[in-house]
Amino acid sequence: MTGFEVLTMGRVGVDVYPEQIGVGLDEVTSFAKFLGGSPTNVAVAASRLGRRAAVITRTGEDPFGRFVHRALDGFGVDDRFVTAVAGLQTPVTFCEIFPPDDFPLYFYRLPTAPDLQIRADELDLDAVRAADVFWVTGTGLAEEPSREATLAALEARGRRGVTVLDLDYRSMFWSSAAEATAQVARALPYVTVAVGNREECQVAVGESDPESAAKALRDAGVDLAVVKQGPAGVLGSDRREHVVVPPVAVDVVNGLGAGDAFGGALCHGLLAGWDLRRTLEFANAAGAYVAGQLACADAMPDVDQVTTMLGRAA
Fold this sequence. Notes:
Blueprint: E1 6-9, E2 13-18, E3 31-36, H1 38-48, E4 53-60, H2 63-75, E5 77-78, E6 82-85, E7 92-95, E8 105-108, H3 125-130, E9 133-137, H4 146-157, E10 162-166, H5 177-187, E11 193-197, H6 198-205, H7 210-219, E12 224-228, E13 234-237, E14 242-245, H8 258-272, H9 276-291, H10 303-313
Parallel strand pairs: 1-4, 1-9, 2-7, 4-5, 4-6, 9-10, 10-11, 11-12
Antiparallel strand pairs: 2-3, 7-8, 12-13, 13-14
Helix pairs in contact: 1-8, 6-7, 8-9, 9-10
């Protein structure tokens, strides 16, 4: 193996989702357990699309940590860079499901999470440099030593290949939005692709208008800016193209994994060398497919399933 096609870094955990839809956690009577964590899900999504994928993350030394390894193996994602942290527990995340657009999340990651204990001196920087796509998230910048490790990986990679920053702003992980802005600014010069919704762009570059946000990200040195606009679709802007792709209609069951499916499919399209419109249409369809399912990682589609979604949208 000369390198992974997709290597992601950051959050992992176990999603515990209610099997009853439209009721609060206080009324739920049964749950299902799934692999979770945005960059981990992106690696799963890429693997389901036929890409050689791995994730850099950490778990607790506990049964849920063992579950993470077993689940990754089942999805075909290499787990060689997944290590345990003594004394910490693998995070769990609960959600409530109120379709079509209300999915409150409850993170159990205190006092800290193992995936925020990724250390710079433990990274395989040769693997980071060799990956065709390297994907990190804003959450990885929220706390030390993960912050130092994320920046060290980006610096060592030196904008090789496709280097993606998923802006991934979650306010509960930060002391303030201003701190997130400052740390994202440190990462942007090292990345070639930035992906985020309007709120995340506002935090990252002070712009929520999609056109202005894309310009600000490009001005910060990013080659490709991808701005998610919800019902208005997705805007993509690079040196050659500026496109807006409409969403794919779907009866939403759980919208939480759609962005990760979009991310894995974005990696797939970029690796395939597709033009920007085709890449974003494919990514939108992948996201729509998962939004129509209960699970996140378990629901990631293969190429045929995404193609079918595209056919329905035509």
